[in-house]
């Protein structure tokens, strides 16, 4: 199968309205960092667990990119010591809303998500000053008073 045909099938699979809930062996996690070689460090919804590595399957490689803060659905790997899971699905906002309605979305991710949105809206209101320009204050009242 050529690369283009394979990409078409993978995109169709991800774009389909498959909003099925995670099974017992699957877990929703957040990407913390990319470690290279298609390995990603993820944060578990359980606060007691430490961060661990998951692998990206061959069908997603060079076709889709995930960044820090994205949510993915993983399936646990029993034989892995360092790599404890494999990415099954990359979750978007539609998945997050559907999982929240069905009370499947982890509470740990919900709280931080709303806090991040508040901070983002505050930052958009004010633009930072350009460091390449000098700040010159002109007082028009002082020049009028001297005349």
Automatic annotation (TrEMBL):
The membrane-spanning stretches of this chain are none
**Superkingdom of this protein's organism:** Eukaryota
Q: Where is this region: Disordered?
A: 110-147
Gene3D superfamilies this protein is in?
Nucleic acid-binding proteins
- Give a yes or no for keyword Transit peptide in this entry: no
Compositional bias of kind Acidic residues = 117-127
Q: Which UniProt keywords apply?
A: RNA-binding
MF terms (GO), sorted A to Z? RNA binding; translation initiation factor activity
Asked if RNA-binding is a keyword of the record, the answer is yes
Which Gene Ontology cellular component annotation is one that this UniProt entry carries?
A: nucleus
Query: Where does the S1-like domain lie?
Result: 25-89
- Bias type Polar residues, positions: 129-147
Spell out the family assignment given in the record's similarity comment.
Belongs to the EIF1AD family.
Could you tell me what this protein is called? Probable RNA-binding protein EIF1AD
**What organism is listed for this UniProt entry?**
Polypedilum vanderplanki (Sleeping chironomid midge)
High-level lineage: Eukaryota, Metazoa, Ecdysozoa, Arthropoda, Hexapoda
């Amino acid at each position: 199968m050529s690369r283009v045909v394979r990409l078409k099938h993978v995109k169709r699979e991800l774009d389909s309205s498959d909003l099925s809930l995670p099974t017992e062996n699957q877990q929703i996690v957040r990407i913390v960092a990319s470690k290279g070689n298609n390995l990603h460090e993820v944060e578990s919804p359980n606060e007691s667990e430490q961060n661990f590595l998951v692998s990206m399957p061959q069908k997603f490689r060079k076709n889709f990119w995930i960044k820090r803060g994205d949510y993915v659905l993983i399936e646990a790997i029993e034989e892995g010591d360092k790599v404890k899971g494999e990415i099954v699905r990359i979750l978007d906002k539609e998945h997050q809303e559907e999982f929240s309605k069905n009370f499947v979305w982890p509470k740990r991710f919900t709280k931080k998500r709303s806090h991040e949105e508040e901070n983002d809206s505050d930052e958009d209101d004010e633009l930072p000053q350009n460091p390449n320009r000098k700040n010159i204050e002109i007082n028009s009242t002082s020049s009028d008073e001297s005349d």
